Amino acid sequence: MRLRFLTLLRCPGCRARLALARSELQEGDDLIEGELACTACSRPYPVRKGIPCFVQGEDYAASFGWQWTRFAHLQRDSYNGTHLVRDSILRRSGWTPEFRATTPRSWPTCAARW
Ligand SMILES: [Zn+2]
């Protein structure tokens, strides 16, 4: 993850800002392996292979993979004719459609597919 976008992330538990807690592998601005931590509640969020993980638990990847394999098309707004994913991402992140238009490289892959 690019550390310059750290100011855009919030703790899912309390919505406070996150900070870099530990860097194990970093290439310039890219944190490849390390850990973020909430500045208010100190909850840790590991970063593995450049991806911050906001869900605790071992079964996260298996559950997410099953969901995307089974419902890959149903969860795309362009497929189901809704704006559910777009609206959910905008509501939860606080981002605006203008943010997406001005910073396309920073937009998450899941959001780019709506
Ligand atoms: Zn927190």
How would you describe this structure in keywords?
114 residues, alpha+beta, 4 strands, 32% helix, binds zinc ion
Topology, pairings included?
Blueprint: E1 18-27, E2 30-38, E3 44-48, E4 51-52, H1 60-71, H2 77-80, H3 84-93, H4 97-102, H5 109-112
The structure holds zinc ion.
Zinc ion (ZN) binds next to loops.
Give the low-pLDDT segments: none
SS content category = alpha+beta
Total helical segments: 5
- The whole-number mean of residue pLDDT values reads 83
Beta-strand content bin: 15-25%
Question: What is the domain total for the residues?
Answer: 2
Could you state the oligomeric state of the chains shown? single chain
Taking the sheet with the most strands, its summary is: 4 strands, antiparallel
The dominant shape is globular
Strand order of the largest sheet: 1-2-3-4
N-end to C-end Cα span: 21 Å
Relative helix content: 25-40%
Bound molecules: zinc ion
Tell me the total number of β-strands.
4
Order of helices and strands: EEEEHHHHH
Radius of gyration: 15 Å
How would you portray this structure in words?
- The chain is α+β, with helices and mostly antiparallel strands.
- The chain has 2 domains: 1-54, no CATH class; 71-114, no CATH class.
- 32% of the residues lie in helices and 23% in strands.
- The chain has 5 helices and 4 strands.
- The protein has helices at 60-71, 77-80, 84-93, 97-102, 109-112; strands at residues 18-27, 30-38, 44-48, 51-52.
- Strands 1-2-3-4 form a 4-stranded antiparallel beta sheet, with no helix packed on it.
- A hairpin with a 2-residue loop joins β1 (18-27) and β2.
- It is globular, with a radius of gyration of 15 Å.
- The protein starts with 17 loop residues before the first strand and ends with a helix.
- Zinc ion (ZN) binds next to loops.
